[in-house]
């Protein structure tokens, strides 16, 4: 199947991290039964509503609980650890689950001045537009969030004092060299591991460039940065050079979705999403996922609504047929080879049911 799952191990209001992790294992088992291609775990830190702070640990648990589905990271943040430690972790998992592990890598650890800077040409970018049926909203300005004092403090906690993040391209080259045995040091376990390396990116910047030039598959984030998804996949394809593992560009594109038997129910289940996005974009970190009633009690300002508008407008919510149709548009417009779907609802059973309905509709002739 050309659908995969991205799981953040969300913690709902009134529950614990242990509950979230047990839910992740349960959802992964069901995804394996439904035929989803991959089950990826995200890395987030200092987020009250997300339990996925150590993806390698969680990947090992999910791989042990499932049978055939590929399991991987979406993504390991390479700025927080060395290429050697990443290869050793994933090599260890691969030793017990050979041929099933994806090592998705994301760029992190950029200097605050770089992170706060507007992307090139941001001032000239148009507002919301429809591209062949796909909504491309205006770009979100991350400069205020990047300058939040909490994030600066957290950055110091994620690295050793005085540590400096190397160039991302050099880090990727080290990962590949450790895996294929061409490094001057040997990773054990890790060297020769049958893991598939992916690069994840939200723009047409260095991540897309590195993925293309190294002939690696690329994951573009429509669910995180919908404004730049087209430029990300275009930059990757333009930079692509065939490698021993990949003869042609291979793209997976992410999307937020909530599916239910009827549209009204789906919209109610998805109603806390805006409040959750707000918690992230105000610098507080992802909150515990609210119930629809808790979300309805929030008093919204116009500034708050504008803060989350691009994410809310690009979330795919509705019946199986409605969401499937919109996902097929996303796949067609981006040229994606696969789609990576992330679904968050307050109740675990609703999240499982959403993925069940989506799989049934996607596979329907």
Task: Explain what you see.
With 365 residues, the protein is an alpha/beta fold. It is built from 15 helices and twelve strands. The strands form two sheets. Strands 1-2-3-5-8-9-10-12 form an eight-stranded parallel β-barrel, surrounded by eight helices. Strand 8, helix 8 and strand 9 form a beta-alpha-beta unit. Helix 1 packs across helix 2 and helix 8 packs parallel to helix 9. About 5% of the residues have low confidence.
- The amount of beta strand, in percent, is 5-15%
Query: Structural class per helix/strand content?
Result: alpha/beta
Mean pLDDT across residues: 93
Tell me the number of strands: 12
* Spatial order of the strands forming the largest sheet: 1-2-3-5-8-9-10-12
Order of helices and strands: EHEHEEHEHEEHHHEHEHEHHHHEHEH
Shape: globular
Short description:
The protein is α/β, with parallel strands linked by helices and 365 residues long. The protein has 15 helices and 12 strands.
List the helices and strands and how they pair.
Elements (H helix, E strand, L loop, with lengths): L2 E5 L9 H18 L3 E4 L13 H11 L4 E4 L2 E2 L5 H14 L4 E6 L5 H5 L12 E3 L2 E3 L6 H4 L2 H10 L9 H13 L15 E6 L4 H8 L4 E3 L8 H11 L11 E9 L3 H8 L2 H9 L10 H5 L5 H12 L2 E3 L1 H15 L3 E5 L5 H16 L2
Parallel strand pairs: 1-2, 1-12, 2-3, 3-5, 4-5, 5-8, 8-9, 9-10, 10-11, 10-12
Antiparallel strand pairs: 6-7
Primary descriptors:
two-stranded antiparallel sheet; 12 strands; 15% strand; 15 helices; alpha/beta; 8-stranded parallel β-barrel; 365 residues
């Amino acid at each position: 199947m050309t659908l995969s799952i991205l799981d953040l191990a969300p913690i709902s209001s009134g529950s614990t991290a242990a509950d979230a992790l047990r839910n992740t294992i349960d959802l992964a088992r069901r995804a394996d039964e439904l035929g989803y291609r991959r089950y990826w775990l995200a890395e987030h830190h200092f987020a009250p509503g997300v339990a996925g702070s150590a993806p390698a640990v969680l990947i090992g648990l999910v791989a042990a609980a499932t049978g055939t589905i590929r399991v991987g990271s979406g993504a390991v943040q390479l700025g927080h650890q060395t290429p050697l430690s990443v290869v050793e972790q994933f090599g260890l998992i691969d030793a017990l689950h050979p041929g099933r592990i994806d090592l998705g890598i994301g760029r992190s650890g950029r200097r605050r001045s770089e992170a706060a800077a507007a992307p090139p040409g941001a001032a000239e970018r148009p507002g919301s537009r429809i591209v062949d049926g796909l909504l491309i909203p205006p770009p979100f300005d991350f400069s205020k969030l990047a300058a939040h004092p909490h994030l600066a403090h957290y950055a110091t906690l994620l690295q050793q004092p005085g540590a400096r993040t190397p160039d991302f391209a050099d880090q990727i080259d080290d990962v590949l060299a450790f895996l294929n045995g061409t490094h001057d040091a040997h990773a054990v376990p890790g060297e020769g591991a049958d893991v598939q390396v992916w690069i994840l990116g939200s723009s047409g910047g260095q991540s897309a460039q590195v993925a293309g030039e190294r002939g690696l598959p690329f994951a573009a984030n429509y669910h995180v940065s919908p404004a730049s998804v087209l430029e990300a996949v275009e930059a990757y394809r333009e930079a692509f050079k065939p490698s021993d593992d990949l003869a042609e560009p291979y793209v997976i594109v992410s999307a937020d979705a909530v599916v239910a038997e009827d549209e009204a129910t789906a919209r109610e289940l998805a109603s806390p999403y805006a409040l959750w996005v707000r918690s992230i974009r105000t610098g507080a970190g992802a909150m515990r996922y609210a119930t629809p009633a808790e979300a309805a009690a929030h008093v919204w300002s116009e500034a708050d609504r504008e803060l989350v508008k691009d994410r809310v407008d690009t979330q795919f919510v509705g019946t199986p047929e409605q969401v499937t149709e919109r996902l097929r548009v996303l796949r067609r417009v981006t040229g994606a080879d696969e789609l990576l779907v992330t679904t968050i609802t307050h109740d675990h059973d609703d999240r499982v049911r959403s993925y069940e309905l989506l799989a049934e509709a996607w596979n329907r002739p």
